[in-house]
Design brief:
- This protein has 8 helices and 20 strands.
- By secondary structure, the protein is an alpha+beta fold.
- It has 2 domains: about 150 residues, Beta Barrel (L,D-transpeptidase catalytic domain-like), CATH 2.40.440.10; about 120 residues, Roll (Nuclear Transport Factor 2, Chain: A).
- The strands form 5 sheets. It has an 8-stranded mixed β-sheet with strand order 7-6-5-14-9-10-11-13. Strands 4-17-18-19-20 form a 5-stranded antiparallel β-sheet. The protein has a 3-stranded antiparallel β-sheet with strand order 1-2-3, with no helix packed on it.
- A hairpin with a 4-residue loop joins strand 5 and strand 6.
- The chain is globular.
Length: about 375
């Protein structure tokens, strides 16, 4: 019997039956519909959607098992920059910490948090929303500095605050305004019970911020803020990772080979550089560089990949040598998909390094030196 005929007959029977029988038959109907639509099952009780063999779901209490240990936002980690990465999930008011385990994310622990008083993604100054995206932690303000700067009002930040780079490059392209988005503690930890209770910052308990600080390295550790933390099956997750990795490797090869047209093809039409300007100006500049004699040597290592919505941030150590330049630095590439769904570079940042990535990161109480070391590191 065809599915629509079955449902028509069933509706006629249901109109003549008691409520108790209706309940039983409703369950049977759902079971039968499952047989007809097994590829579109929605497992609402576990908050997991299975569609086209891809799993996405909510962390709930922070326990991550099996395939759910592959977060959609964290694709590649390294030992030097992205040795640890923080993911803030606004819907559950939880902060999750992952560490690098041979380039794969390994879940460590979660903490309760509070976020902006107003739900939603921040777009304007004073809207009391917590921004969503990929951010760098660029500074640290201890309680003494906060009180010195803000007086008694500085006490509300607890033992300290980590500064983010909101608005980042993508935020600025989107016309977002505001600033002062921090990851900080509080002198009133009852605020965490409210969930939505900040002016846009991410708020933790004092002891939790202290513990978390052991895994933070300024201008290296990233914070990904999302409404819902979703997960993928391993094969889908690895496919997404390989797609971006292949783009980066192709870009580097074209650069080394001085194949100008192929090199420029990796840049998005929306590309903009703070010094070189838009894509047209950048192309003219690069054309003059490529026309100089000799081939450069470009090598990268310690690469990480983070994704939020429609953009990705790729971070790595870059070595560049030409006839006149010889330097090593931390490179940040911001990528977006074009109309053909190819990842392309929209912006890039370079910070010269004084030392190379030869010593792996080791967690320590660098920001709260007067505190006792916590034993049994989860490095």
């Amino acid at each position: 019997m065809r599915q629509e005929n079955y449902l028509y007959l069933l509706r006629g029977l249901l109109s003549r039956l008691s409520t108790r029988v209706l309940t039983t038959l409703t369950f049977l109907t759902i079971s039968l519909l499952f047989l007809f639509n097994s590829n579109q099952l929605i497992a609402m009780a576990s908050d997991i959607v299975i569609k086209d063999k891809t799993i996405v779901g909510n962390t709930g209490n922070g326990i991550i098992e099996g395939d759910m240990r592959f977060p959609v936002n964290v694709l590649l980690l390294d030992n030097f920059f992205s040795h640890h990465i923080i993911v803030v999930e606004k819907s559950t008011h939880r902060l999750h910490l992952y560490k690098n385990n041979n380039s794969y994310p390994e879940y460590l622990f979660s903490y309760p948090i509070a976020t902006g008083l107003t739900a939603g993604n921040k777009s304007n100054r004073g809207d009391l929303k917590t921004p969503e995206g990929i951010y760098q932690l660029t500074g640290f303000l201890p309680s003494e500095a906060l009180i010195r700067q803000y007086g008694e009002d500085g006490k509300k930040y607890g033992i300290g605050a980590f500064v983010t780079d909101y608005p980042n490059i993508i935020d600025k392209k989107d016309g977002k305004t505001g600033g002062g988005i921090w990851l900080h503690s509080t002198n009133d930890e009852s605020r965490l019970l409210k969930g939505l209770d900040s002016k846009g910052c991410v708020v933790l308990a004092n002891q939790n911020l202290k513990e978390l600080s052991r895994y933070i390295e300024l201008n290296a550790t990233q914070v990904i803020i999302v409404q819902d933390l979703l997960f993928l099956r391993k094969e889908t997750w690895e496919k997404n990772r390989e797609e971006i990795t292949a783009r980066i490797n192709g870009w580097i090869k074209a650069w080394n080979d001085k194949e100008f047209n192929r090199y420029i093809s990796y840049y998005h039409n929306e590309y903009h550089d703070s010094q070189k300007g838009n894509l047209r100006s950048f192309k003219n500049y690069k054309m003059s560089v490529f026309q100089k004699p000799g081939k450069p040597i470009i090598k990268i290592k310690e690469m990480s990949i983070a994704i939020f919505d429609r953009y990705a941030v790729v971070q790595f150590e870059q070595y560049y040598k030409s006839n006149i330049i010889d330097d090593t630095g931390r490179k940040l590439l911001y990528l977006k998909k074009d109309e053909n769904y190819d990842w392309k570079i929209v912006s890039e940042l370079f910070y010269k390094l004084n030392s190379t990535s030869e010593v792996a990161f080791n967690p320590s109480m660098r920001f709260f030196k007067d505190s006792k070391e916590i034993k049994n590191d989860k490095i």
